[in-house]
Every structure is written in structure tokens, then in C-alpha cells.
């Protein structure tokens, strides 16, 4: 099953505007493929997502597809991927609205036996970056542990670390192979800018000594025309920078 809440008609995990990217699948990639449902829905919504539609929380319909899939395929070997975007994309607090629904469905699946011999993972594409630092590479290694039936940590692991093993609490972004622009696990502290002060002052002095040529005085004063030129000129007040002066 591939169940991707696209949120907008031009979006999707594997669908991007064709004038900028290659087109998506030429054939459906899964037996249960929900993109036609979402494209029809978002056409009705004029490609603008909503939390509710006709008095109903839309995400509940998206989760229902996941629940029915597990229920009716309980005795089969399957892989399903459900990615719900719209309800939490702009406000993570909305996730609470689905708590009771998901809890009810999970309890029913457990009582029915549909979760026997099943690994069910509930996660986000990124979180609040609190507590333990885990990544999608760790989940990948965890899945490899399951399919290889080696959940004792003895299987060779590469970039990730299986969640069946202890996750260190002090791992940094560097330890996790997460590049800096994707990592907010930073240490609070004031930046030392003392070394930058003198070079900046030197640059200002150098610029002040240059004979900067402008098309005319009005451009130099930041004026679009000659109106109130004298008034503008008189308002220029010198400001001291180091032992030199510049006009602001």
C-alpha cells in the first residue's frame, strides 16, 4: 500500500511539477495506490488543504485507509506506507485531534490478532529534536535486523544504528552523520565576535577613504529626484566610527 496525503495537487513524495522535475510513476507502484483519491479530493478543495471538510476531520479518512488495509491483509505478507501531511504541516498541535481515533483503531487491530507477526512503526518525518537523536537510517537498520532475524546487535551496521540496540544519549549531529543545516541540536552560548570587530572597522575606514563615484549627488543621498535636496542634505549627521566620521 502506498497512501500519501499530497496536501496540494502539485505535491507528493514522488510527484513534482513536471516542468521542473521528471514525471512520477508511469504505472502505479503498489497494489493499493491512493493518489487518484487524493488528486480528486484536492481538486474538490481547489488544491488548498483543510483540517475539516463537511464537518469531518479529513485525516480520519486518511487513517481509515491504513486501518482497512491492515485488517483485510492480516493473513498476508505486505508492506504499507501511509504518510499524512496536511493535519500537522502548519500546526503540530492538531495531531492531538487524532489521538482517540488512532488509539481505538490500534486496540481493535490488536484484539483481532491483525498485528501478529507485524511491525508497526508510527513516526514523523522530523520531530521536535528532543530526547534521543534518532534518524531514518536507524529505522532502516532496524528493518534490516528484522528481515535478517539478527536482533542481537551482531549484524554489521553502516550509517545507522538499529533501534534494537542501545541508543547513546550523548550522540551529536556529527556522530549521527547529520549535516549541520538539518540539525538543531546545538549548544546554547554567546558567539565570540571580538575577532571580527577590528577587521570590520578597518574595512569601514578603507571604504571611507575611497573616492566613490556616483552618477550624481541625488543617487549618493539615496534620493529618487531633486525634491527637497537641500533639506535632505542638511539632515545628514556625522556618526563616529572609531576615530573617523561617516555620514548616515
UniProtKB/TrEMBL annotation:
<dbReference type="InterPro" id="IPR017850">
    <property type="entry name" value="Alkaline_phosphatase_core_sf"/>
</dbReference>
<dbReference type="InterPro" id="IPR004245">
    <property type="entry name" value="DUF229"/>
</dbReference>
<dbReference type="GO" id="GO:0005615">
    <property type="term" value="C:extracellular space"/>
</dbReference>
<dbReference type="Pfam" id="PF02995">
    <property type="entry name" value="DUF229"/>
</dbReference>
<protein>
    <recommendedName>
        <fullName>Sulfatase N-terminal domain-containing protein</fullName>
    </recommendedName>
</protein>
Amino acid at each position: 500500500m502506498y497512501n500519501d496525503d499530497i496536501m496540494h495537487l502539485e505535491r507528493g513524495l514522488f510527484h513534482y511539477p513536471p516542468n521542473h522535475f521528471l514525471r512520477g510513476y508511469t504505472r502505479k507502484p503498489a497494489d493499493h495506490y491512493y493518489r487518484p483519491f487524493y488528486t480528486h479530493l484536492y481538486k474538490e478543495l481547489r488544491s488548498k488543504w483543510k483540517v475539516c471538510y463537511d464537518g469531518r476531520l479529513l485525516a480520519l479518512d486518511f487513517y481509515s485507509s491504513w486501518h482497512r488495509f491492515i485488517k483485510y491483509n492480516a493473513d498476508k505478507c505486505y508492506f504499507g506506507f501511509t504518510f499524512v501531511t496536511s493535519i500537522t504541516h502548519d500546526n503540530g498541535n492538531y495531531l492531538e485531534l487524532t489521538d482517540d481515533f488512532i488509539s481505538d483503531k490500534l486496540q481493535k487491530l490488536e484484539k483481532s490478532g491483525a498485528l501478529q507477526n507485524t511491525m508497526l512503526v508510527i513516526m514523523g518525518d522530523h520531530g521536535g529534536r528532543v530526547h534521543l537523536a534518532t534518524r531514518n537510517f536507524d529505522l532502516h537498520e532496524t528493518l534490516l535486523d528484522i528481515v535478517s532475524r539478527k536482533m542481537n546487535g551482531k549484524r554489521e551496521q553502516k550509517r545507522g544504528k538499529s533501534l534494537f540496540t542501545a541508543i547513546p544519549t550523548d550522540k551529536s549531529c556529527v556522530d549521527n552523520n547529520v549535516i549541520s543545516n538539518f540539525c538543531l541540536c546545538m549548544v546554547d552560548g554567546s558567539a565570540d565576535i571580538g575577532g571580527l570587530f577590528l577587521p570590520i572597522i578597518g574595512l569601514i575606514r578603507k571604504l571611507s577613504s575611497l573616492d566613490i563615484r556616483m552618477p550624481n549627488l541625488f543617487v549618493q543621498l539615496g534620493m529618487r529626484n531633486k525634491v527637497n535636496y537641500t533639506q535632505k542634505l542638511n539632515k545628514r549627521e556625522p556618526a563616529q566610527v572609531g576615530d573617523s566620521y561617516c555620514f548616515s
